[in-house]
UniProtKB/TrEMBL annotation:
Domain DUF218 as annotated: residue spans: 52-168
Protein name: DUF218 domain-containing protein
Organism: Candidatus Brevifilum fermentans
One Pfam family recorded for the sequence: DUF218
Record lineage: Bacteria, Bacillati, Chloroflexota, Anaerolineae, Anaerolineales
Superkingdom per UniProt: Bacteria
Database matches in PANTHER family: INNER MEMBRANE PROTEIN, PROBABLE PERMEASE (PTHR30336), INTEGRAL MEMBRANE PROTEIN (PTHR30336:SF6)
GO CC, alphabetical: plasma membrane
Length: 218
């Protein structure tokens, strides 16, 4: 019985130490990504000019219109466009079916804000942030861009694009009064998501859905 108890204690402590080590590593990765992104994050009026703004997708309302988070991203991107910071808007999001189309919703909303349709480019296969950055480079031929998303998401997006050799700057689209509980959840979710981003970039190196090149600037 004493041997069994000793064995169980060893197993318990081993699992506990592994858990603590993993928790520390995940926190360290998130901290590193936050530090990396800080000098690359700007206010809309201060961000360096770039050819393209990469607008990352987010949830839609039941009627297919952009949710509040996505509206803020499109509005911020339109602000960059009208101020001359960018020439084109690359709307990258999930278009899993004809009933769910983030890029299409972004396109319609940008048009309603006055952005000309010839300066809006759609990427229907930006299912993940990694996919959006990868496809911006390999499909749309973009090597310099401004990422537009919320502050909780921006550090990870900047890390991924920079790791894929894209010169990326970031502008936060936090314009609305978001639900406090939801915003805390989004920030918390970024902790494991940051570790997943490191895995994608340095270890998995997966290739997203590609296709024929469609350079924005032929």
């Amino acid at each position: 019985m004493n041997y069994l108890r000793r064995f169980l204690l060893i197993v318990f402590h081993s699992i506990l130490y592994i858990f603590i080590g993993a928790f520390f590593l995940v926190g360290l990765i998130r901290t590193g990504i936050l530090i990396h992104s800080r000098p690359k994050t700007f206010l809309p009026e201060d961000v360096p000019e770039a050819p393209v703004a990469l607008v990352l997708g987010a949830g839609l309302n039941r009627d297919g219109s952009p949710g509040v988070v996505l509206r803020d991203r499109v509005e911020t991107a339109a602000e960059l466009y009208f101020s001359g910071k960018v020439e084109k808007l690359l709307m990258s999001g999930d278009n899993v079916s004809q009933y769910y189309n983030e890029p299409g919703a972004m396109f319609d909303y940008a048009l309603s804000l006055g952005v000309p349709d010839e300066d809006i480019v759609l990427d229907p296969a930006g299912i993940r942030t990694y996919d959006s950055c990868y496809r911006a480079r390999d499909i749309f031929g973009v090597n310099q861009l401004i990422i537009v998303t919320q502050a909780f998401h921006l550090p990870r997006a900047l890390f991924i694009c920079n790791a894929l050799n894209i010169e990326a700057y970031g502008v936060s689209a936090d314009d609305a009064n978001y639900n406090r509980r939801g915003y805390i959840f989004w920030w918390a979710r970024e902790i494991p998501a940051s570790s997943a981003a490191v895995w994608d970039v340095y270890f998995a190196r997966s290739t997203p859905i590609l296709g024929q090149p469609e350079p924005i600037f032929p």
